[in-house]
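Run: sequence + magnesium ion -> complex structure.
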Amino acid sequence: MKRSVIRSAGDASPGVSDYENIWKLRILNRALWVVFAGSVGAIGLWIFRRGGFDKGALLGGVFTTLVFASLHPRFSWRFKAVILIFDFTLVGMYFPSITGPRFGPLCLAGAGCIVVAAFFGRLPAYLLALADFAGIMAYGILAHLGWLKTLDIPLPGEAAFMTWFQAGIVFLAANTVLVMMVDEIVRSLAVSIERLKRQHAISKSLALYDNLTGLPNRKLFQDRLQHAMAASARDLQYGAVFFIDVDNFKNINDTSGHASGDYFLTTVAERLSDVIKPTDTAARWGGDEFVVIAENLSSSLTQAGQAAEKIGEKILEAINVPIANPYAKGQSYQNSVSIGITLMYGHIHSADELLKRADIAMYQAKVGGKNRLRNFDVDMQKQVEERLALEADLKEALRKSEFELHFQPQYNSQHKVFGAEILLRWRHATRGMIFPGDFIPLAEETGDIIEIGKWVIRMACLKLQEWGEQDTKKHLVLAINVSPKQFREPGFAEMVRETVRQSGITPAALKLELTESLMLENVDETIQKMEQLKGVGVGFSLDDFGTGYSSLAYLKRLPFSQLKIDQSFVRDMTSDKNDAILIRTIIGMAANLNLQVIAEGVETPEQLGALSEMGCHAYQGFHFSRPVPLAEFENLLLL
Ligand code: C2E
Ligand code: MG
Ligand code: MG
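>> structure
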C-alpha cells in the first residue's frame, strides 16, 4: 500500500520583513558604534584643549552615554535611528553657538536629516532641515544683535547676520539635494524588498496548497490535523478523518487525456469543499486521493459515528453527479469514490495512525466494490497486515519453488482421460497449502501473475514434451488458466509461441483457458492475439462460460475451440429447471457455432447422466477425480 507521511516541520526560515529589519539594525548599529567612538575621542580632545571638564564636555558625555545605551540589542531600529538623528542634530546645532557657522558642525546636523530621510522618508527630513535652517537663522539674529559671542568673526565689512544667512542657505540647499538622493535610493530598495516579499508569499502558499485544486496540500493538512486533534482534546469532541480515493480514475486519464483528468480532480475538490463545513478541512493527499477532517461531531461516540457517516454519504452523493468534460462535447464522467472513515478523539491515536486507519478503511471500501464508505475497525487492520505479509511471501514463492501443479483429469464420453486442467497450488512454508482463490487475485493485482503464469506454461510444455515421447500419453491435452492481466501483457503471444517452439510439442496439445472478462475491453487486440496463437495451433477454451457478459456477436468473432460450462450451472442442474434449460441452450449454441463443449464441476452420476443426455460429452469434476499431483495423475492414466 502506498504510504508516505510527511511530517510538518515548523517553518524556521526567516520572512522578508525579518531581513529588512536585520538590514536596518546592522546599518544603525555600525553608525552608532562609529558615533560612539568618535564622540569619546572628541570629548577627550575637548577636555584636553579646554584644560578641564566644562558644560560642553558634560553635554557631549550625556549624548555619548545615550548612544552607547542605544546599542543594546533590545532596542528597535526605530529607537536607534532616533538616537542617531537626535545626536547628529543637537550636537551639530549646539557647536555653532560656540564656534560660529563653521560647516563641520553643521554637516553633523545635515547628517541627521539624511538619516531621517533614510529611515522615515523625505517629508520629515525636509522638516528637520527647515528646523535646522531656522536655528541657524536664529543664531544669526542673536549674533547680529550682539547677544551671542561665537569664535567666528564675520568677514571684514560684512554683517554677522550675512555670514549666518549664507551658512543657512548652503545648509538648506545641500541637504535638500542629499535628502532627495537618499530618498530615491531607499525607495528603490523598498521596491525590491516589496517584490521579494510578494515572491516569498507566493512560494509560501505554493508550499502549502496544491496548485491544481487549490486545496491544502499534505503538509498543511498534517498541520490542520494536529490542530484538530488538540481542539478535540480540549473540547472533548469527536472528529473524523476521511480518506477518499476516486474509483477508476486512471480510465479518465487513459481515455480522455490528462487535461480531462485534471479537470475532473478540480471538480471533485470543489464538490468536497462544498459538502464540508467551512471550518472543516478538505485537502489533496496526492494523485486522485483526497483527505477530509470533520471536527466537533459530537461528544458521544455513537452520534459522532453517525454524523461522520452522514458526511461520507453526502460526499458520495456529491461526487456521483456526472461531471461534464469541457474538452469533449457531450461527454461526461461519473466516477465514484471510495471512502474510509476513522474517528478522532484528542490524541488517543497519532496523526499517522489516524491516516493509516482511514486509508485501510478506504482500501476495504474498494475491495467491497467501490463507490461506498467503510469505517475503520481493528479486524480490518489485521486483514490488511495479513494481506501485506502474503504479498511479500508471494514475491518469494517462485524463487523458493513453493508452487505445485495439480492436474484435474478431463474425461470423454467413454469415460477415458483425454487430458487435464492444470490448477496451481501454493505450498506455503507456514500456512500450508493455499488454493488459487486465495492468491491468484492478489498475484493479478501485484503483477506477479505474469511471472507465475510464464512458469506454469513452461512447466506444462516440459510435461507435454515428455509425454509426447510416450505412446500411452502423447494424446493428452493440457488446459492452462490464463488470467486477463497475463493475456494483456504485450509479449504474451510471442512468449507462448517461443515456449511451444522450444519444447517441440504439438501446439494443439496446449489449450489456454480464458474468461469472458477478456471480451469486455480491447476486443480487437484480444482477437489479434488469439489468432496469432491459433495460427500456430494452440487451442482456446472459454472458461466459466455463462457467468460473465459474453456477447454472442463477440463469441462468433473470437477463435475459441471450446466452451466450458461453469460449475455453478452444473451444480444445480438436477434441482433447478432454469439451470438445466441454460445448459441445454449452451450445448445447442456450441453445436451451432461449431465449438466443443465441456462441463466442469461434475460431482454426481445424475449430473453426468443429464449432461450426456443433453449432448455434452466431455467432463471434469469430483465425480471422476479431484485435482491431483502429477504422480497421482499419471497413476490414474494406468487405470
Ligand atoms: P477454474 O479454472 O474455473 O477451475 C476450476 C475450479 O473448480 C478449480 O478450483 C477446481 O479445483 C474446482 N473444481 C473442479 N471440479 C470440481 C467439482 O466437481 N466441484 C467443485 N466444487 N469444484 C471443482 P481451484 O483449483 O481452487 O482453482 C480456482 C481458480 O483459480 C480456477 O478456476 C482458475 O480460475 C484459477 N487458477 C487455478 N490455477 C491457475 C493458474 O495456473 N493460472 C491462473 N491464472 N489461474 C489459475
Ligand atoms: Mg479453468
Ligand atoms: Mg472454471
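>> summary
The pocket of magnesium ion (ligand 2) is lined by residues 421, 481, 513, 543 (CB under 6 Å). The two ends are 50 Å apart (CA to CA).
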